[in-house]
Amino acid sequence: MKRTVCIVLGLLLASCAVYAAPPADSNWRAEVAAEMPLLGHRNWIIIADSAYPLQIAPGVETIETHEPQLEVARFVLGVIERSIHVRPDVFMDSELPFVSDEDAPDASAYRRQASDLLHNYQVVSEPHDKLISEANDAGNTFKILVLKTSGTIPYSSIFIRLNCKYWSDDAEQRLRARMQGSAAR
User: Fold this and answer.
1) What is the pTM for the complete model shown?
2) Is residue 168 part of a domain?
3) Does 184 reside within a domain?
4) Mean of pLDDT values over 63-78
5) Distances (CA, A) of 102 to 6, 98, 99, 105, 107
6) Measured between alpha carbons, how far is 25 from 42 in angstroms, rounded to an integer?
């Protein structure tokens, strides 16, 4: 009886230890690199601050990186740039320029560093709720990869909608114009 009680207590303690243990860190860099060949235009990668909500649309996958936000963004942009098939359309929250250092220490420094990192890209500002909604809607059909970071500046998430690298927006417009002209004949 005593032996059975000891075994049961041991199992209970072991299960509590397993339950309380933090999840093993994923190798998010390897996951991003492995996913990149599969991702294409209309997929999204979101480099999110730590309070970004866990979305439940079927195509949304969230990975906790435990890394600084701009380090994650630098890595992701590098992987995208090295790809042969996609380019980034970059979006940021329109609220970010109005976040004060008084309310969020280091907000100004974050904005400067983000601007330096993203200087080669046209960054479109849109309201935070609109960006989350667009990504969530896209997640009903396309893969959305959310990389949560250790960032603590509100409204600092970087939203990247992937676009085709070898087909420009101008080429798409010309194609649509030719198609429309052909249909009018």
Assistant:
1) 0.84
2) yes
3) no
4) 98
5) 56, 11, 8, 6, 9
6) 28
